[in-house]
Amino acid sequence: MPTINEILTTMDYGPAPESQKEAQAWLDQHGRSFGLFIDNAFSAPGELFASTNPADASKLADLTQATDADVDRAVEAARRAQPGWQALGGHGRAKVLYALARLLQKHSRLFAVLETLDNGKTIRETRDIDMPLAARHFYYHAGWAQLQAEEFADYRAVGVVGQIVPWNFPLLMLSWKIAPALAAGNTVVFKPAEFTSLTAMLFAEICVQAGVPAGVVNIVTGDGRVGEAIVNHAGIDKLAFTGSTEVGRLIRTATAGSGKKLSLELGGKSPFIVFDDADLDAAVEGLVDSIWFNQGQVCCAGSRLLVQESVQDRFLAKLRTRMDKLTLGSPLDKSIDIGALVDPVQQQRIAALVDSARAEGCTVYQPACDIPANGSWYPPTLITGASTSAAVSQAEIFGPVLVAMSFRTPPEAVQLANNTVYGLAACVWSENISLAMDVAPQIKAGVVWINTANQFDAACGFGGYRESGYGREGGREGMYEYLTALSEDARPAAPLLEVKGKVKAAAAAGNDSPFAVDRTAKLYIGGKQARPDGAYSRAIHGAGGAFLADIAEGSRKDIRNAVEAAHKAGGWSKATAHNRAQVLYYIAENLAVRAEEFAARISAMTGNKNADKEVQASIERLFYYAAWADKYDGLAHQPPMHGVTVALNEPIGVIGIVCPNEAPLLGFISLVAPAIALGNRVIVVPSEAHPLSAIDLYQVFDTSDLPGGVVNIVTGSADELARTLATHADIDAVWRHDGSAEGCAEVERLSATTLKRTWVGGAKGRDWYSTAQSGGRAVLAHASQVKNVWIPYGV
C-alpha cells in the first residue's frame, strides 16, 4: 500500500479555469472599442489599434491612438483641475483616494481577469498579488493625503504630472504612480502601455464612480508617439517613467534644461545570492518566485543566480527538479505557474539571447513541457557556464531565463553582484543574519531582500541605483517625488550679486599680509597639492582690478586623477556618522581660527564689504551639517509581512560639484558639507570667478583629519570641467549651481549616458545664507539614496 508521501508526490493538479464571462461582458458593453479618458469623459474612438490576448492571439478590443492634439487637451484639462484639486485639502483628497481603494477591492476579480486576458500573466498573480497591492497603494496614500498639511508642511504639489508605465504590471504600475500624485495634490496625464491598456480603461470608470473631479485623472492610450508628446509637452511639470533604460536615457536627454522634475524606474539584472549555510529548499522556492514570477517579465527579477561553490551542484540539482514541476499553460487556469509572454516580439528577443548563449558554449536546461500552439510562450530556462561578460550575464533578458554562476567567498559574491550597470534589487539567502546584513549594504541596489524575494508594499520605497534609474515609488520618499519645497519658489530669479565696496589694492610683496606673495595656486587631489596636467594657469584679479594670484587650469586628466583619488577614499563612506560629524566640526573650528584671513581674501576677490558675515555663515553651515551627519537616520517600516523593512540612507558615491560664483566660500561649503556629511566623496569646481577662498581651504582640510581624496578641488572653466564630470563613467552624480542655464541643461543632457543623478539650479540663483534654500532634508536627499532591506523573522 503506498504511503501518504508517495500519493502526494504522484498527484497531478486538474484544470481549475477562472471564468472570463464578466470580463468579456464588460468589453461587450463598450463595443470592444475605447476612446481616450479626458476631463472625466471618454472621447469617441479615433484611429484604432488592437489589444490582443497573448495566450491565444485573439483580439480583445480596439483602443485609440492619441494624437498630439489629444495630449494637449489632456494637459489643459489637468491644468484647469489642479488648483481646485489642491485646494480641496488633504481630507477631501483622502476621501476620494479611499473611495478608489474600496472600488478596486469591490471589482477586484473583474480587474484581475481582465489583466490576465490582456497581459498573459497567471490569474493567481493578478488575483493574489497585483490587486491587493493596487488597493493597498490607494489606502496608504489616502493616509498621506490626510496627513500632508502636517507631515509635508514645507512642500506643495508639483502641478501637472505626466506618467508613463510598461506592460508587465499595468494596473499595479498605475496605482504606484497615480495614488501618490493625487495624494500630494497633483493632477495627472497617464499613458498605459500600448499592449496592456484595458485595466486603465476600467480604472477610468471607477474614477468617475469615486468622485474624482473632472480633469484630475486623464488617460491617453497609444504607442511611443504618445509618450514622446507627454515628455516634450511644456505644460507638464513632472515626469514619472517606468520602462527600459534605453527609453529612460531618451527622456533624460529630452527633458534636459526644461526644469521638469523627473523620476525613472528602469531596467535591472538583479543578483540572487545563495550562501552555503542557506536553507536550500527555501532558497529554491524563493528563486522560483524571483525569476519565473510573471514569466520573468519583471525589472527586479532575480535573473543572476550566484551560489556558493560548496553547494552549487546540490542547489542546481534541486533547482532542476523544481523546474521540472513548473506548469505552463492557460493563464486563467489557477493551477498554472507560468503564463504567456506579452507579445511575439518579446518571445523572439528572448529566444535570440538564449541561442547566443548556446553558441558561446553555455549549457541550457529547459524542462520538457507542452507549449500551446497559439500565443507567445517560452519555457523556464537555466543557463550555466556563461562568462561574466556574456550577453546573457549582462543584458536584461526580461523573460523566464536564469543565468547561474558560482562564488567562493562573500567579497567575491559582492563583486559579482555589483558587476552590472544596473542596481535595482538583490536577494541574499543565508541563515547567518550577521553575514546577510553585512553583505546587503555592500550591494549597489535600491532594494535587498533577505531570505525572501519580490516583496513589495506601499509603505516601502522601491527604486534603483545607477542605470536602474533614480527616484523612489512608495513610502515617504515616494511622496517627495510629487512635491516641491516651498523654498524653491522663493529663490531669486537670477544669481545674487555680491554687495561691493571700496577695496584696497593688493599688498606689495614683502608686506606682512598673508596674501602678499604672488603665487600659483595648485589643485587639491588625494589630500595633496597637485600641478595641473596641462601646465596652464589663469590670473585672478580682485574687485578693483588688482592681480591676486594665478590659479591652475584644470583639465580632463585632472578630473580623472581626482575621480581615482575619490574612489580610493571609499573608507569615508564606511566611517561612522559620528566620525564624519567630528571631522566637520574640526573643519569649522580650524576655519574659525583663520576667519579674518578668509574674510580678507573674499573681500579682495569680490569687493564684498561684509565678507566676515560670509565666513561666519560658512562656519555655522559646517556646524549645521555636522549636526545632521549622525541624525539623518533611516526608517524601520512594518509592512504586512512577518518581518521588518529597514530603509537605509546611503551615500550616492562620488559627486561632482560646480559651485556658484556668488558667496564663493559659503556656496562651496553649502554644497560640499552635506555631501561629505553623508559619506560621499566629491570633486569640486569652485567659483570660476572667485576661486581663491576655496583653494585656501586645503590647509584647513589638512589640519582637520579629513582623509585624502574625500574632497578634491579642481579649478578652471566651469563649462569644460562640468562637461567632463557629466560624462565620466565613475562619477555617480553631478550638481551645478553657478547660474548657467545652458551649462545646467548640458549637465542633465550628458548625464543621460550613464543616468547619473543631477541637481542643478538652472538660471535661477539661491540665497546661500538661507537655511531654507540651502539646508535641511531637501538638500540631504540629493546627497543620499534610500535602500530598503527586507528582513523576515520567525520563518
UniProtKB/TrEMBL annotation:
Transmembrane segments: none
Keywords: Oxidoreductase
Domain of life of the organism encoding this protein: Bacteria
Active-site feature positions: E265
Aldehyde dehydrogenase domain sequence ranges: 48-484, 541-758
InterPro entries: Ald_DH/histidinol_DH, Ald_DH_C, Ald_DH_CS_GLU, Ald_DH_N, Aldehyde_DH, Aldehyde_DH_dom
GO function terms (MF aspect): oxidoreductase activity, acting on the aldehyde or oxo group of donors, NAD or NADP as acceptor
Keyword Oxidoreductase: yes
Family listed: Belongs to the aldehyde dehydrogenase family.
Protein name as catalogued: Aldehyde dehydrogenase (NAD+)
Taxonomic source organism: Rugamonas rubra
